[in-house]
Amino acid sequence: MSTTQLIRSEWPAFRRSGRLIALAAAGLIVIAVGLQFASGNRSGCDGPCRQLVSYDDTVVRDQFSFLHRDLGREGGITVRLTSMTGTITYPPPNHDQIVPGLVPWAKAGIVIKDGVRPGSRYAALMMTGGHGVRFQYDYTHDVAGRGGDVSQQSPRWLRLTRSGDNITGAESTDGRQWHTVASAKLDGLPDNVQVGLFATSPNNLTLRKAGLGGAMGQERHTQAVGVFDNVTLDGAAAGAWHSEPVGGASTADWEKRNPSRAVEKDGVITVSGSGDIGPSGDEGVKALLLGLPIGLIIVLIVAAHYGAALEAPSRRVIDARTIVVAAATFVTGLVAVGIVVPAGMAILKGNGILVPVPMLTGARVVTGLAVVLALCGIPAFGLGLRLRRGWTANLIGLSLIALPYTVATLPLLPDPVSEWLLRLTPAAGFAVQQTMTEYPQVTAHYAPSAGYFPLPWWAGLAVLGAYTVIVMWIAVGRKPVADTDWR
C-alpha cells in the first residue's frame, strides 16, 4: 500500500464524531472569544482613531506642537535651548496630583519636515527628558549625541542644516565649538520644506503589579515645554512664524485647560506639546486571540487520546496517523485564526479602532498559528502513543505546552519568568503571532502579557519543532515495531 493510500485509509479511523466535534468546538471558541472582544471595544476618539502610515508604510505616531517657516534647498536653523520642563498628570502612587516632571522620551528641539502632514519625512535634533541630545529621522532612526540627562545640562545649542536632500544635526555647549551628531539623506525632499521648533511628550507608562508578580501597563497624559532663544534662520522665508499642532491637538481633559502651544515674546520662544514622533508600539492582534489557549487545550486532549487508542501499530501506520493528526489540527487552526483575525480587525475598524497589522504580517500570523497547532498536536499524539494512557498524556502535554503559554501571556508571572518560559518550552512556537517591534526610542511594555514575544517567530518555531522531534523520537524511535500494514 502506498503512503498516500495508507493516509487515506487512516482518516476514517480519526474522524469519529467525538474528535471532529471537539476540534470544531476548539475553532469556534477561538472565533467566538475574539469576535466578542472586538465587538465590545470602541474608540475613545472623536471619530475613528486613524492609523497613521509614514512614507514607507510604517505605522507611526506623529503628533507635536510646531512653530515653523518655509525653508529652501539650502539653509538651516540654529537655536539655544535654555530650559526644558514638563508635566505628568496623576502618576502613582495615589493618582491624585498633577506634578512637574519629564518622561524619558519627552522631546524639545528643532526639526526640518516635508510639510506639516502627519507621517511625512523629517529630521530632528532634540533634547530628551532622560536620554540626552538625539538626532532622529524618519520615525525609526535614532542617534545619540553628547548631551546627557536634561537635569544635569546647562543651556544647549542645537543646529540643523539642509543641503538638498541631506540634513545634518550638530550640538554645542557654547555656540562656538560644534559637534556633529549625525546626518541623514531624505531622498525626494521637495524644494520647499518646513523648519522650526517643536515639543512633544508621550504618555507616562508605569506598571501595576498583578497576579503572582505580573505587571499591567498604565498610561497618563504628559506635556513637555522647551524654552528657546538666539534663534537664527538661514535660507528660510521672511515673515511671521506659523504655529499649529501636527497630528491634531490633544483631547485630554487636562490639556483642554492647558493647551499645547508656541508663544514668542522678546526673542524668547516657548513651545509646549504632547504626543510623540516615532514608530507605533501597538500590540496588534494579541487581544483577538484570547480564546487560543482554550482551543490549544482541546487540540492537545484530542491528539493525546487518539495516540493512546492505538495498539502495536507499524512504523508506517504511526507515520500516517501522525500526518492525519497534523493535518486535522492545521486545518482547525487555519480556519479559526483565518476567520477571527480579519473579521475581528474589521469589527474593530467599524468601532473606530484600527489595528496596525500589515497584510503580509497578518498572513504570517494566520498560517503560522495553524502550523504551531499542528506541531503541538504531534507531540501530544506521541505521548499518548508511548504512555498508552490518555489522561497521563494529557497531563504531560498540557503541562509542557498549554500551561507555559497560558501563564506567560497573562499578566500573572513576573515578566522575566514569562519570557524564559517562551524561550525554553514548546510554547516558544507561539511567537509566530508577534506583531510588535521593539524600538529603543519608544516607551512600551515589551512583555508577553502585552503581546511581545522574546524570540523572533522563526526561532520560536525552531524551538517547538525541536521538541516535536524529540518527543516523537522518544515515543516511537526507540521502540521496535513490525514494519507491516497492520491497522
Radius of gyration: 28 Å
What's the end-to-end separation, in Å? 12 Å
Give the tally of β-strands.
18
Percentage of β-strand residues: 25-35%
- Following the backbone from N to C, one meets helices and strands in this order, namely HHEEEEEEEEEEEEEEEHEEEHHHHHH
Largest sheet: 14 strands, antiparallel
Describe the structure.
This protein is of the alpha+beta class. The chain folds into two domains: 3-41 and 283-477; 60-279, Sandwich (Jelly Rolls). The protein has helices spanning 3-14, 17-39, 253-257, 292-308, 315-350, 359-387, 390-409, 415-424, 457-477; strands at residues 60-62, 64-89, 98-100, 107-113, 122-128, 133-137, 141-144, 156-163, 166-172, 179-185, 193-200, 204-210, 214-220, 222-236, 242-246, 261-265, 268-273, 277-279. Strands 2, 3, 4, 5, 6, 7, 8, 9, 10, 11, 14, 15, 16 and 17 form a 14-stranded antiparallel sheet that branches. It has a two-stranded antiparallel sheet with strand order 1-18. A hairpin with a 2-residue loop joins strand 16 (261-265) and strand 17. The longest helix is centred in the last third of the chain and has 36 residues, at 315-350. It starts with a helix and ends in a 10-residue tail after the last helix. The model is unreliable at 479-487 (pLDDT under 50).
Q: How would you concisely characterize the structure shown here?
A:
By secondary structure, the protein is of the alpha+beta class.
Give the helix/strand layout.
Blueprint: H1 3-14, H2 17-39, E1 60-62, E2 64-89, E3 98-100, E4 107-113, E5 122-128, E6 133-137, E7 141-144, E8 156-163, E9 166-172, E10 179-185, E11 193-200, E12 204-210, E13 214-220, E14 222-236, E15 242-246, H3 253-257, E16 261-265, E17 268-273, E18 277-279, H4 292-308, H5 315-350, H6 359-387, H7 390-409, H8 415-424, H9 457-477
Antiparallel strand pairs: 1-18, 2-3, 2-8, 2-11, 2-14, 2-15, 4-5, 4-11, 5-6, 6-7, 8-9, 9-10, 12-13, 14-17, 16-17
Helix pairs in contact: 1-5, 2-4, 2-5, 4-6, 4-7, 5-6, 6-7, 6-9, 7-8
